[in-house]
């Protein structure tokens, strides 16, 4: 189906077609926005919950190590957790706030040093040269032995959201393209009898014969186009000498 | 696993099967890893990557002595075979190699592992398979985990610890008035071990680490350490102690001197002094500018001092056998040193190991290893320091040596005041 044919479509149906597009666009955009919100909220909560789980695991595993002052083993422990996707940094503080083990390179950022390193609340951090993070904490031995804090890369959440939205947009685009072709086809299908009716009416106005195959096909239709064609034919016949109209009106019995 | 390593494993595996069949038919097997003709030790170390010089040199030193013993008839007629795998100084391959050595190769004991991050991950496996009584002998690391519970009982150390090395460095710096000490370290268990040693030593003088900067394990000499230098410069240190491997420490030293950080820069023994010196001076006419304030602690005496019997023997055997790296594990080019602190340590490790194996008698068994080690008291290894082991003493040597670069080579440091004041 070509574009010129689309634009040769009756004006009445063009409006309908554009109405369909508009409605489709509104549905697509609103669904996408809702989806973004749902994915963002869901993934962020899941991310935070996972981070807290990791922090608690490290905190539980650190108790004996910290009490034995074995900082080498403590570092070895957090080095294993830093390999988990999304975990960007880990640091462990003593009960006095001294950072005893960490994974920062080339050094501990000033923002971390200046912050409340023994806090266990979740905070959002932006570290220069490193990126944006959600930082969660977990107390070690109820906080009397220290605190574990983990920085999770929010860029990874953004990437996951982008990926989820991208997949949705991809699906919507496919539905849109199929929908457009389907709408054009249906509108053209609906517009075809109207086009024939118009040609029929013009033919009658020019007093051309209505015996052609296309005219007969139109007159044989049992829908509104057929009714109108028969009505046009009825009115186009000459009146009798008594000033009465055509001898017979449109046949509604076929409806 | 590389194809070379696979070939190596297949070769040894086939040989092991044949030996196993042979020994079974003779009914002479005494313990896993021991046949009528061989005692097999397993070694996982860095033979590739930026720290490959450490594994290669340690292996070469040990090979020289084992070769010497084997040519003289071995231990009670059995040759010592060192079965090697490459871990690239990475924990996960080290763990896999250890599993292979323990469960498939069934070596008699583990020997000469390289590095703290690798060894700290291997130790729990020794505990897991403790019923097999496989011990780790003389790892090339001074970290605490293999010296303390819960994993101390599964390892024996020959060298002094990082705690002793860093304590000595701090003490000497403080003695000459350099109390503001910063630390440059590898961001892993090894770096933390040294950092903790410096922190503990400074506490005794009422001081704290004034600044710290880190680098990632596996950093190369071509990498830039300017950020680390700037961080440490901002803390205005009187001295910097580095806990790293030679490639990264050489890069730090280069950038520190170039950026005007004119304070003594110390390294611990693990650094691989000759590799570091080679990197920092090669292709330069002004090498002295970079080494003037360099001081490295060592856990073995100077390999130039032939008045020490073991050093004399080391030089002779290294020249006689010219041991090479295990060719099947080499994936990158490497030019070995005729002598080095690391290969001397490997040599002494092998000498101590042979003494222990010799004390097992005609039928070596793993179960008797611990008693054989503990029977060593005041043993003369030939370096002027007696070696003793015991249930509460799982480290044979305690002495730390300090060296500086003069005329392009490391020599003993006798006067800190004159050199660094």
Furnish the topology, listing elements before pairings.
The complex is a heterodimer of chains A (255) and B (421).
Chain A lengths: L2 H5 L3 H57 L3 H11 L5 E7 L5 E4 L7 H5 L8 E5 L3 E10 L5 E8 H52 L7 H8 L3 H13 L19
Antiparallel strand pairs in A: 1-2, 1-5, 3-4, 4-5
Helix pairs in contact in A: 2-3, 2-5, 5-7, 6-7
Chain B lengths: L2 H24 L11 E8 L6 H20 L7 E8 L4 H14 L4 E3 L4 H13 L7 E2 L17 E2 L5 H14 L5 E6 L2 H15 L7 E5 L10 H9 L4 E5 L2 H13 L6 E3 L5 H9 L5 H5 L2 E5 L10 H13 L19 H18 L10 H6 L4 E2 L5 E2 L13 E6 L2 E4 L3 H5 L1
Parallel strand pairs in B: 1-2, 1-3, 3-4, 4-5, 6-7, 6-8, 8-9, 9-10
Antiparallel strand pairs in B: 10-13, 11-12, 13-14
Helix pairs in contact in B: 2-11, 2-12, 3-4, 5-6, 8-9
Which overall shape of chain A is indicated by the principal axes computed on the Cα atoms?
rod-shaped
Unreliable runs of chain A = none
Quaternary structure state of the chains depicted: heterodimer
Strand numbers in spatial order across the main sheet of chain B: 7-6-8-9-10-13-14
How many domains of chain A? 2
Please write the string of helix (H) and strand (E) elements of chain B: HEHEHEHEEHEHEHEHEHHEHHHEEEEH
Spatial strand sequence of the major β-sheet of chain A: 2-1-5-4-3
- Mean of residue pLDDT of chain B? 92
Radius of gyration of chain B using CA atoms only: 21 Å
Output the CATH homologous superfamily of the largest domain in chain A. Answer: PAS domain
How much strand content do the residues of chain B show?
Answer: 5-15%
* Total number of helices of chain A: 7
Largest sheet of chain B: 7 strands, mixed
């Amino acid at each position: 189906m070509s574009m010129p044919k689309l634009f040769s479509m009756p004006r009445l149906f063009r409006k309908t077609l554009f109405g369909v597009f508009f409605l489709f666009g509104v549905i697509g955009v609103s669904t996408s926005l809702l989806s973004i919100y749902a994915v963002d909220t869901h993934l962020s909560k899941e991310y935070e919950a996972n981070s807290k789980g990791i922090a608690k695991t490290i905190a539980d595993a650190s108790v004996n190590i910290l009490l034995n002052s074995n900082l080498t083993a403590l570092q070895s422990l957090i080095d294993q957790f830093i390999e988990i996707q999304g975990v960007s940094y880990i640091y462990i503080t003593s009960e006095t706030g001294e950072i005893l083990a960490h994974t920062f390179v080339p050094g501990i950022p000033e923002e971390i040093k200046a912050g409340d390193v023994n806090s266990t609340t979740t905070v959002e951090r932006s570290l220069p040269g490193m990126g944006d993070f959600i930082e969660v904490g977990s107390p070690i031995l109820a906080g009397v032995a220290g605190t574990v804090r983990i920085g999770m890369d929010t860029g990874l959440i953004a990437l996951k959201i982008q990926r989820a939205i991208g997949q949705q947009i991809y699906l919507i685009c496919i539905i849109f393209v199929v929908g457009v072709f389907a709408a054009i086809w249906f509108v053209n299908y609906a517009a075809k009898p109207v086009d024939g009716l118009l040609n029929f009416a013009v033919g009658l106005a020019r007093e051309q014969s209505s015996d052609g195959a296309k005219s007969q096909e139109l007159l044989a239709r049992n829908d509104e186009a057929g009714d109108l064609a028969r009505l046009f034919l009825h009115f186009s016949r000459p009146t009798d000498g008594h000033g009465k109209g055509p001898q017979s009106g449109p046949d509604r019995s076929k409806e | 696993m590389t194809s070379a390593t696979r070939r190596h494993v297949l070769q040894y595996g086939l040989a092991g099967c044949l030996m196993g069949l042979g020994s079974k038919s003779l009914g002479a097997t005494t313990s896993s890893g021991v046949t009528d003709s061989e005692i097999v030790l397993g070694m996982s170390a860095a033979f590739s990557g930026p720290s490959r010089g450490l594994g290669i040199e340690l292996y070469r030193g040990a090979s020289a002595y084992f070769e010497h013993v084997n040519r003289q008839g071995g231990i009670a007629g059995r040759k010592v075979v060192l079965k090697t795998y490459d871990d690239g100084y990475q924990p996960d391959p080290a763990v896999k190699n250890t599993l292979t050595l323990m469960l498939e190769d069934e070596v008699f004991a583990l020997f000469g592992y390289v590095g703290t991050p690798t060894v700290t991950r291997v130790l729990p496996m020794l505990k897991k398979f403790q019923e097999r009584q496989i011990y780790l002998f003389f790892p090339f690391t001074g970290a605490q985990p293999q010296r303390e519970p819960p994993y101390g009982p599964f390892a024996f150390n020959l060298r002094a610890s990082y705690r002793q090395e860093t304590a000595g460095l701090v003490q000497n710096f403080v003695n000459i008035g350099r109390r503001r000490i910063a630390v440059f370290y590898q961001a892993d268990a090894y770096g933390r071990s040294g950092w903790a040693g410096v922190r503990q030593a400074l506490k005794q003088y009422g001081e704290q680490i004034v600044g710290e900067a880190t680098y990632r394990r596996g950093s190369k000499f071509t990498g830039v350490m300017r950020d680390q230098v700037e961080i440490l410069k901002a803390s205005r240190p009187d001295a910097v102690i580095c806990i790293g491997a030679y490639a990264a420490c050489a890069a730090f030293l280069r950038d520190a001197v170039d950026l005007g950080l004119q304070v003594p820069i110390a390294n611990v023994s693990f650094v691989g002094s000759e590799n570091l010196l080679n990197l920092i001076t090669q292709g330069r006419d002004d090498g002295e500018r970079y080494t003037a304030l360099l001081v490295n602690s060592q856990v073995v005496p100077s390999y130039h001092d032939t008045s020490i019997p073991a050093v004399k023997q080391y030089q002779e055997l290294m020249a006689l056998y010219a041991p090479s790296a295990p060719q099947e594990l080499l994936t990158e080019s490497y030019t070995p040193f005729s002598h080095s602190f690391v290969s001397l340590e490997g040599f002494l490790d092998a000498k101590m190991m042979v003494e222990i194996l010799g004390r097992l008698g005609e039928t070596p068994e793993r179960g008797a290893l611990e008693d054989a080690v503990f029977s060593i008291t005041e043993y003369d290894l030939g370096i002027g320091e007696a070696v003793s082991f015991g249930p509460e003493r799982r480290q044979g040597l305690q002495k730390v040596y300090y060296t500086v670069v003069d005329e392009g080579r490391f020599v003993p440091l006798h006067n800190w005041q004159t050199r660094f004041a």
